[in-house]
């Protein structure tokens, strides 16, 4: 069985290039999905406290470790949620995640968003129909608590997610510690060339989320674009395989989510794109640039301008870096 390509992180740890995403994988679906994925060669799982399904992922892990894999052969990522950014809450939430998963360590722990919520009032605290943001706790404070986790042995690497260049530069200027990974939305319609180049220059590995464009935001699916379908037909591949191959061609890791056996299995089978196919696919994003995941547009709204996208400019706050 092929386990796919592996990339080396700045700390020397190998990260498998294709992983299984688990956002919106419902209870009763995700246990099965994780088990199928590992039995078919996936060695990289992308999890998060906020997906509220880690208990079930933990049940799947019990089925596959050690019967199918050794713990050390899996690369398991999870993420610190926004309501635990205060320094005294960071290790506590990590312990909760490890307890849900039945694990003693994670391979990678990420700050999920450069956004802090008021703690102690659930995962989505609200005030006046909006998310109640914590505008006091800085990203530097949270990053310092993440750095402290490295000494506990409970995480092998730390990183960030949804961070811009400015957010990364701010935490590094204050601490001297670079994140091993920045997990960002990246697909045909959002190549994020500047951010990818900055991360490459500083040896920050990119993990691309929503590689298929997701389909919860009511926008056309990337699998429906005629150019994607034409290249898939030419290669005898699925449209999803073409979209995943586009991310793989760019050299970062890609974490498609599925809870359907056939898709989980086929998404992991890699197809090679020619330079010409890669360019043809990239042209779609130049014509139709789209970011799907902008929390300012969520209900309840996060009144914060994270990415400086035009839809966010009327937000009244920005991430507090230091
Ligand atoms: N850091 C962050 O803030 C962040 C944000 C978003 C996502 N993520 C991570 O990235 C992962 C992937 O992103 P995502 O879940 O947003 O979106 P995605 O992987 O781009 O797309 C998932 C959607 O595509 C469908 N799909 C999967 N395989 C398919 C195939 N072969 N053909 C057609 N449709 C297919 C899935 O449905 P079925 O399940 O029914 O197959 C699901 O509806 C997440 O699960 C999560 O782990 C992280």
UniProtKB/TrEMBL annotation:
<dbReference type="GO" id="GO:0016616">
    <property type="term" value="F:oxidoreductase activity, acting on the CH-OH group of donors, NAD or NADP as acceptor"/>
</dbReference>
<dbReference type="InterPro" id="IPR036812">
    <property type="entry name" value="NAD(P)_OxRdtase_dom_sf"/>
</dbReference>
<feature type="active site" description="Proton donor">
    <location>
        <position position="51"/>
    </location>
</feature>
<dbReference type="InterPro" id="IPR023210">
    <property type="entry name" value="NADP_OxRdtase_dom"/>
</dbReference>
<dbReference type="InterPro" id="IPR018170">
    <property type="entry name" value="Aldo/ket_reductase_CS"/>
</dbReference>
<feature type="domain" description="NADP-dependent oxidoreductase">
    <location>
        <begin position="18"/>
        <end position="284"/>
    </location>
</feature>
<dbReference type="InterPro" id="IPR020471">
    <property type="entry name" value="AKR"/>
</dbReference>
<protein>
    <submittedName>
        <fullName>Aldehyde reductase 1</fullName>
    </submittedName>
</protein>
<feature type="binding site">
    <location>
        <position position="112"/>
    </location>
    <ligand>
        <name>substrate</name>
    </ligand>
</feature>
<dbReference type="Pfam" id="PF00248">
    <property type="entry name" value="Aldo_ket_red"/>
</dbReference>
<keyword id="KW-0560">Oxidoreductase</keyword>
<feature type="site" description="Lowers pKa of active site Tyr">
    <location>
        <position position="79"/>
    </location>
</feature>
